[in-house]
Structures are given as structure tokens and as C-alpha cells.
Amino acid sequence: MRQTLRAAALALVATLAVSAFAQSAATATVSQPVPPEALRLHDFFQMPVGPKGLVISERLRQLQGRQVRITGYVVQQEVATLGQFLLTPRPVLMSQHADGEADDLPPATVFVRLDADQQDWAVAHARGLVEVTGTLEVGRQEERDGRVSWFRIQLAPEAIRGMNRFEVTQYLHSLQHTH
């Protein structure tokens, strides 16, 4: 119970389309920052699927290391992983205790990482689509929990914020009433 309340108190709200660039009012000749590239989770793999199975699309490989903007669903987990959350093309409920490693995560699951100073923060599940902006990383990597990720987005520190007391109360209330 205490861990649940602590996780809820540390719960975060993902902001929509956070820009990583700050505009300088001091200089009139400042060049405009390059806007993040819009990316769809459905564009991660070459289509149609061939005899080699899923192959990462060339467009996704070209966006490696660049700012991207992507929309998806936050995976609802029984126990949130501190410092990150998962984004998928469809709503997913993970039952870690019942299913263990046999989950239903789609191949285009993105591990969204919080800033290094926010590694002890838990992200509250958000219903519906959310949009995140961050730096894309593509390639196989083993995560702290033993899972293997192929796609990661690193968020800027200002991309998320802590909930105030009213928001935490509303969030806990919404968990009890799913209407």
C-alpha cells in the first residue's frame, strides 16, 4: 500500500508535443530550430512482411538520433517501471504478476525514457492517445529489467512534470471508477 501511494505521488503527466529548443529573444537573427519529425508507429517496419520476418524500415533508421514526435498509447502496467514508460500503437494492459515475460507487447513498442534526474519517477497511465517528443534510438538493447528494446525515445527534462495533490487525487479516483 505504501509503495502504491509513493508511486502515485511520484506519478507524472506526459505533456503534449514538448519542444527541446528554447527561443532566444535577445537575437533577431536566430535561425528557426528544425521541428521534430512526425513518426507513426505503423511505419516502423517494411511492409509487406517478407520471408525474413519484420525488418526495420529505412525511414526509421534514417531518423536515428534525431528529434521525433510520435503518438501512441501508454501501456497500463500493474507495477510501473521507474524512469520510463512504454508506448504502443494500440492499448495494452500488462499483467506482470500473471503473465511474467509472456506479455502481449506489439513489435513496435517504444521504451520512452525520462531524463537522468527523473529515474526514480513513475509515469501514471494515461487513457487514450498521447504524443511525445524526444530523441529516437534504434537498435537492440537489453534494459535494466532484462527486457530487450529495439526502439527508444529519450525525453527532455521539461517534457514531463510532477502531479500536484489535486491531480494525484483525481488520478487515484479515476482508477476506482472506470466509466
Outline the secondary-structure elements.
Layout: H1 2-9, E1 12-14, E2 37-39, H2 58-62, E3 67-74, E4 76-77, E5 84-88, E6 93-94, H3 96-99, E7 110-113, E8 129-142, E9 148-155, E10 160-162, H4 165-176
Parallel strand pairs: 2-3, 4-6, 7-9
Antiparallel strand pairs: 1-10, 3-5, 3-8, 5-7, 8-9
Model description:
By secondary structure, the protein is of the alpha/beta class. The chain has one domain (11-19, 33-176): Nucleic acid-binding proteins (OB fold (Dihydrolipoamide Acetyltransferase, E2P)), CATH 2.40.50.140. Helix content is 16%, strand content 29%. The protein has 4 helices and 10 strands. It has helices spanning 2-9, 58-62, 96-99, 165-176, and strands spanning 12-14, 37-39, 67-74, 76-77, 84-88, 93-94, 110-113, 129-142, 148-155, 160-162. The protein has a 5-stranded mixed beta barrel. It has a two-stranded antiparallel ribbon with strand order 1-10. Strands 4-6 form a two-stranded parallel ribbon. Strand 2 (37-39), helix 2 and strand 3 (67-74) form a beta-alpha-beta unit. The two termini are 24 Å apart.
